[in-house]
Design goal:
The complex is a heterodimer.
Chain A: H1 3-32, H2 39-53, H3 63-87, H4 103-114, H5 124-127, H6 130-160, H7 170-195, E1 206-209, E2 215-218, H8 223-232, H9 253-277, H10 281-308, H11 311-315, H12 331-344, H13 359-370, H14 381-399, E3 406-407, E4 410-411, H15 414-438, H16 442-445, H17 452-467, H18 482-511, H19 528-562
Antiparallel strand pairs in A: 1-2, 3-4
Helix pairs in contact in A: 1-9, 1-12, 2-7, 3-4, 3-6, 3-18, 4-18, 6-7, 6-8, 6-9, 6-18, 7-8, 8-9, 9-10, 9-12, 10-12, 10-13, 10-19, 12-13, 13-17, 13-19, 14-15, 14-18, 14-19, 15-17, 15-18, 17-18, 17-19
Chain B: H1 12-24, H2 28-31, H3 35-57, H4 62-100, E1 105-109, E2 118-122, E3 131-135, E4 144-154, H5 156-159, E5 165-168, E6 175-176, E7 181-191, H6 199-208, H7 216-237, H8 239-245, H9 252-262, H10 265-284, E8 287-289, H11 292-300, E9 303-307, H12 308-312, E10 313-324, H13 330-341, H14 347-360, H15 367-370, E11 372-375, E12 383-388, E13 391-397, H16 398-413, H17 419-434, E14 437-444, E15 447-458, H18 462-471, E16 475-479, H19 484-494, E17 498-500, H20 505-517, E18 522-526, H21 532-537, E19 540-544, H22 549-554, E20 557-559, H23 566-604, H24 629-653, H25 662-695
Parallel strand pairs in B: 9-16, 9-18, 16-17, 18-19, 19-20
Antiparallel strand pairs in B: 1-2, 1-3, 3-7, 4-5, 4-6, 4-7, 8-20, 10-15, 11-12, 12-13, 13-14, 14-15
């Protein structure tokens, strides 16, 4: 590890922290329906959209109605995206002449983008037409992100409201998020990316003649605009197969910094939105602090493991850290930082190959996802995810102060515990069960590139990434087979909707409750004690669930490496 | 019941029958009520069946498997034992109560009011509304209300208190309880509870835990435990497949051992014992909670409504000061006041005599030698005093005494007393009222001497109790019939947070509703019939046992000692119950860390063994250096079973509540039960491993 590396990491953290309050304050106003800077421009558009959709911002929904709207909207999104892929050969904006995507892959891709996962069993430049990329994938990049944020806002309303029946209006939240938050920020980001040299064109691929005289086709496209939302919406689906390691997606250190910032920006700001909505910003900071602790531990371990490198390579007389699979323009610190960020959030964009990380370095991204991506997390998803852990933490710890548990004045009772446990259970269900089947199914095992524990990690990583709606791939696993297309798709659906629906149920149940005023007998949830408690619960619950799988994967691989054994 | 208070937590009379109870509770219909232990029983049965199969067809490490199976069953039995012990303590009390419920003959009055016409019927045949006669020496056949007569009643069967109490018709002391005995006089009682539904029956079933239902918080905690169990089903059920990929094999016995040690068996085993013990602690405290829910609510109370008299102040006012009128010496006033009070047996009167003696050295005089006649207090005159050989001394309420002096002066001199002296007296009296006292004017032969300051004496230590309550986050509200001025003064002196002056049943009820609308939980106690609506509305309503039937029906707790200060302890008991649950849950989950470090290396040590190495790389996780994989697994499962036994005393006694603020309390408990929960099993498992290895068990 170098001082320089740590300075870069600290610079990143500082800028991010500075963004939280202004961005959070803005989003708070947007979702409260207050006037913002952009209102004069966007309010008429917003009203027009409501009129078109036959709804109104004054119309409030019961949580079940909210959930139904969300599910129908996502179902429609899935169907459109599936159709676009299957029909792309016959549709315009297809200069490279891509043919229809085969059904299994189309299903996997459609689910992947609707669930904000962006797991890619395809290479973008060799599979998808411009139309599918823009009207299909990019649209889902926007609305899947907006869906996540809407759910988070609805859940926050559950805490903020008292004795209410409704938790907001899904269509209004979705529209406001897209119109006021995602679109304006993306326009700014796109322009910045274009300025930094990222292509933005409808022109066909370019043929170039290399110095040796060989002919090379250089893939282009409307890249900058897709990268903007890919990062901001924690989607992570690259325009190109190499994702953010590709020089056209992520040309230099500045673009890398902007991309890392935009991955965490909205997720971190949501903690402030939460604080504002419940009337005590410290509550939001406490949650962000818990995330921050877990994040910094992850970065430290990952950076340390990568900087320490492989002793077996050192024995050959080659010094230094592990540069395998990393871009020289980013180096070890920024590759490790990016890997931790992208898996802490449910982004899944990569600027280095996680498969090539050391065993421990690669374990951190895996753990980040196994914990449910609650370390800042996917836009919205991370926040409602961590609130599930908050419910559990408060339930157990709250009893220890001699009161029935409460959080922000809301009693945490059987229904909330049931729903939170359901949400927390859905992740290991998808991650562990599918992995357990895949590692003994001959057809599935055949897709694994490496043997031994590393091969195990590849499968575990794939299902973990899918269920956590991350979308990053460890690499090494040939995922474009019917088995993986279908099961990974199912994993993504479970990881998304089996968390969202309980979260909304909690929102509805909490909104209906009275708010108990805090007293000296209620334990403060805005201090270091709470931060420590929440971190402890996340690590213990997550750790206990996944320890066996990590033991036969990265841990045994690391220990074997020390003994001179590789796989 | 008072004798059972001294029974220690672990008493052989309770422990021995509990062993039998532990086996009886293996009945699946009983076990299913405890999902975690039910799951343990199911997997224990599965391993047992597999063991029998191996026994028949041969194979497997039978000695090791047998030991695991034994400890698995012990885990279930220990849990049952914990519950049986908790119930056993209640049963002992129930037995002593049952003795009171002997078959009685009731004197059923045939003809309403006529006392002479009754027929003897068995007490169990009485219906609600029947009117019975109970005479000296009779056992009251069932719960009821006195509709005629006064009697002294021995209620020791219920309260453990042997001093008789008075029960009379009308007023707040009209309720009688079946099983208690009339000592003197007779009463006519209208039966208010049918056989099997009496207070005594309810008490028996409550202390026995027969009617025990899971409380809301217990249900929520059970859901959490079931969720944790499911997580560990996923974590362990996927291991065989991981193992087969890694080129190994894990036997069902070992998987079951891992699974049982991981699921929260400790709290699962002790949860119902904790609940029963919480109710039991109240019973030992002579408070009966009608439901476990009420005990939980007690822990959550935000606002305590406390009656002034008897709770905050001593029941009676006491003289604290003599304030003479102009031209009168203190000595003179004290002398007159003492004379007027000599024969006054009220506590106020006695306190004047005491003050006169203590402050002015005026010795008690004998009425007879003084040839004095006592003029007692009446509701009409609102004065009392003495007449001594033509001279009269009177003390009384200020307005009543002024009127008396006025009359006397007009009669004697044809003139009114000077308005100066009246104004003077009035000013002193007002000042006293403002300070929360009651002024008592004194005159001698028509001459106003001054005012005695009668004061509500705030109970010693009550101020500290309220400060403690404030630290617990509980707001105290004093309820009093006094005027706002007096109430404010006493409230300030006692250190309550708020007061309700000139309280009526209606504004008491609306105060509770107001607090509840703010999301607060309210506790109160009461005894009168007019308290009933408020008692029913409050989240924790403690009815005094001396109270009326209506009050007892309305409250969700009954205080057998009729001591309103107990509300504070009731809250503490509720909090201790919740804390015990939380602490043991935390402990139980924290334990898993060590168990993983014991079992995972043992299970996975055979994977990826490098050539020339004895064990695989995962052996490095064996940080406790447990002797062999078998001893590691065995030690973990033995620890898991024994910790249940070790924690029974704590779960019965409860984690003590300390009013040190929620944050400090939480960090303390997290340190003890969270961090302790991580460390203790490392030590315990290592120790057991040493023993197991030394004994050659594995």
């Amino acid at each position: 590890m170098t001082i320089n590396g740590w300075i870069q990491i600290l610079v990143y953290c500082s800028i991010l922290l500075l963004l939280v309050k202004p961005l959070g304050g803005y989003m708070y106003r947007v979702f409260s329906g207050d006037r913002t800077l952009l209102s004069p421009l966007l309010a008429p558009v917003e009203r027009g959209l409501y009129r078109l959709a036959g709804t109104s911002e004054k119309e409030e929904q019961h949580w079940a109605v909210y959930a139904t709207g969300m599910l129908l909207f996502n179902l429609a999104g899935f169907l459109v995206l599936y159709a676009l892929q299957r029909l792309q050969g016959a549709l315009p904006y297809n200069p490279a002449g891509m043919s229809a995507v085969e059904p299994g892959l189309a299903f996997n891709t459609a689910v992947s983008f609707v669930t904000n996962t962006n797991w890619q069993n395809y290479g973008g430049e060799s599979t998808m037409s411009y139309l599918v990329q823009m009207a299909g994938l990019t649209v889902q990049n926007f609305v899947s992100a907006a869906t996540g944020i809407a759910i988070a806002i609805a859940l926050i309303r559950g805490f903020a409201r008292a004795s209410g029946k409704s938790i907001g209006n899904f269509w209004v939240d979705l529209t406001r998020c897209t119109l006021y938050v995602l679109l304006p920020l993306c326009i700014v980001l796109t322009l910045a990316y274009v300025w930094l040299g990222i292509p933005q064109t409808f022109g066909p691929y370019v043929d170039a003649t290399t110095l040796e005289g060989a002919k090379q086709t250089i893939a282009l496209g409307p890249v900058a605009s897709q990268i903007a939302i890919k990062m901001l919406g924690t989607n992570g689906g690259g325009f190109f197969n190499a994702n953010a390691a590709h020089p056209f997606e992520n040309p230099d250190a500045i673009s890398n910094l902007i991309q890392m910032l935009s991955i965490f920006a909205l997720g971190a700001a949501l903690t402030n939105v939460f604080g504002c909505m419940v009337g005590n910003q410290r509550q939001g900071w406490a949650i962000l602090a818990s995330m921050g602790v877990l994040f910094l531990v992850g970065v430290t371990v990952c950076y340390w493991a990568e900087a320490a490198g492989n002793p077996l390579v050192h024995a050959l007389g080659i010094d230094g850290g592990n540069m395998e699979g990393k871009e020289t323009r980013f180096g070890i610190a920024l590759s490790a930082l990016f890997a931790v960020i992208t898996t802490a959030a449910s982004c899944g964009a990569v600027n280095a190959m996680h498969d090539s990380f050391t065993a421990l370095g690669g374990m951190i991204p895996l753990i980040n996802m196994q914990l449910g991506e609650v370390i800042v997390g996917g836009v919205g998803a991370g926040f409602y995810g961590i609130l599930m852990f908050v419910v559990i933490a408060v339930f157990v710890a709250g009893l220890m102060v001699g009161r029935t548990p409460e959080y922000l004045g809301k009693k945490i009772e059987a229904k909330e515990v049931k729903m939170a446990m359901l949400a927390i259970l859905s992740l290991p269900l998808a991650m562990l069960i599918f992995t357990a089947i895949a590692v003994v199914l001959p057809g599935a095992v055949a897709s694994i590139a490496n043997g031994g524990p590393h091969g195990f990690s590849e499968v575990l990583y794939a299902y973990t990434s899918a269920a956590a709606n991350n979308g990053s791939a460890f690499g090494g696993l040939s995922g474009n087979t019917p088995w993986y297309n279908i099961t990974l798709g199912l994993g993504m659906l479970m990881g998304r909707f089996l968390v969202i629906i309980p979260a909304l149920a909690i929102a509805g149940s909490l909104a209906a409750k009275k708010t108990v005023p805090a007293s000296a007998g209620t334990f403060p949830t805005d201090g270091t004690l709470f931060v420590g408690l929440l971190v402890g619960v996340i690590i213990i619950v997550g750790g206990l669930t996944f320890f066996p799988s990590l033991a036969v994967g990265p841990i045994v691989e690391h220990l074997a490496m020390i003994h001179g054994q590789t796989f | 019941m008072s004798q059972s208070k001294s029974a220690s937590i672990l008493d052989a009379r309770i422990l021995v029958p509990a062993i039998g109870g532990a086996f009886r509770k293996l009945d699946p219909r009983t076990l299913i009520r405890n999902p975690v232990m039910f799951v343990v029983a199911v997997v224990s049965l599965l391993t047992t069946l597999l063991f029998i199969r191996d026994l028949v067809i041969g194979g497997g490490d039978l000695g090791f498997t047998l030991q695991i199976i034994i400890w698995l069953w012990f885990t279930v039995l220990f849990a049952n034992f914990a519950e049986a012990v908790a119930e056993g303590r209640g049963k002992a009390q129930a037995d002593s109560l049952r003795k009171a419920r002997t078959e009685t003959q009731a004197k059923l009055l045939v003809n309403g009011g006529d006392r002479s016409k009754f027929k003897l019927v068995p007490g169990t045949s009485l219906k609600v509304g029947d009117v019975v006669l109970v005479e000296a020496g009779d056992i009251i056949p069932s719960d009821g209300e006195v509709i005629e007569g006064v009697a002294s009643v021995n209620e020791a069967a219920i309260t453990g208190e042997s001093a008789p109490v008075i029960r009379e018709s009308g007023g707040d002391r009209s309720a009688v309880t079946g099983g208690t005995q009339v000592l003197s006089d007779w009463i006519r009682v209208r039966i208010s509870a049918a056989s099997g539904h009496t207070f005594l029956d309810r008490m028996i079933s409550l202390v026995e835990g027969a009617e025990r239902q899971k409380t809301p918080n217990e249900i929520a905690l059970n859901i959490l435990l079931v969720g944790m169990t499911l997580i560990f089903v996923l974590a362990t059920a996927t291991i065989p497949s991981f193992a087969s990929y890694s080129g190994g094999y894990i036997s069902v016995t070992i998987l079951v051992a891992l699974f049982v040690t991981l699921i929260p068996t400790t709290i699962g085993a002790l949860l119902s014992a904790i609940g029963i013990a919480g109710m039991d602690r109240l019973v030992r405290f002579n408070v009966l909670a009608m439901s476990g829910r009420a005990v939980e609510a007690a822990g959550d109370v935000d606002t305590l409504l406390l009656d002034k008299t008897g709770t905050i102040t001593l029941g009676n006012r006491q003289a604290t000061e003599f304030r003479p009128a102009k031209g009168v010496t203190e000595q003179e006033l004290a002398d007159a006041a003492q004379l007027a009070s000599l024969a006054d047996e009220t506590p106020e009167g006695r306190s004047i005599v005491v003050l006169a003696k203590e402050k002015y050295g005026i010795r008690a005089r004998d009425m007879a030698t003084l040839h004095a006649t006592f003029v007692p207090f009446t509701a009409q005159t609102r004065m009392s005093g003495v007449d001594i050989e033509g001279s009269s001394v009177r003390k009384g309420a200020v307005d009543a005494l002024l009127a008396h002096v006025n009359r006397a002066t007009v009669a004697a001199h044809g003139t009114r007393p000077t308005s100066d002296s009246i104004r003077d007296l009035q000013a002193i009296a007002d000042e006293m009222a403002k300070a929360g006292g009651t002024p008592l004017a004194v005159e001698r032969d028509g001459r106003l001497l001054g005012v005695v300051h009668l004061k509500d004496i705030v109970k010693g230590g009550i101020r500290e109790r309220f400060a403690e309550l404030r630290k617990m986050g509980i707001r105290t509200v004093m309820i009093t019939g006094d005027n706002p001025l007096t109430a404010a003064a006493i409230a300030a002196e006692a250190g309550v947070d708020d007061f309700l002056a000139q309280a009526t049943p209606e504004n008491k009820l609306s105060l509770i509703r107001e607090e509840q609308a703010k999301g607060k939980l309210v506790a109160m106690c009461g005894d009168g019939t007019n308290d009933a609506p408020a008692l029913a509305q409050a989240d924790v309503g403690v009815a005094m046992n001396t109270g009326t039937v209506a009050a007892r029906e309305a409250g969700n707790m009954v205080d057998l000692d009729s001591d309103p200060t107990k509300l504070i302890e009731i809250v503490e008991i509720g909090k201790a119950l919740l804390m015990t649950r939380g602490s043991l849950t935390t402990f139980s989950i924290a334990n898993d860390v060590a168990k993983y470090f014991a079992i995972i290396p043992a299970m996975f040590a055979v994977f990826y063994v490098a050539p020339g190495q004895a064990a695989g790389p995962l052996q490095a996780l064996n940080i406790m250096h447990l002797a062999t994989p078998q001893s590691a697994i065995l030690s973990a499962i033995i620890f898991n079973a024994l910790i249940i036994i070790a924690l029974i005393p704590l779960s019965l006694r409860g984690v003590k509540y300390r009013a040190i603020g929620a944050g400090a309390l939480l960090s303390r408990n997290l340190l003890v039960y969270g961090l302790g929960g991580i460390i203790v099993p490392f030590v315990g498992i290592k120790a057991i491993d040493l023993i197991v290895t030394a004994l050659g068990l594995a």
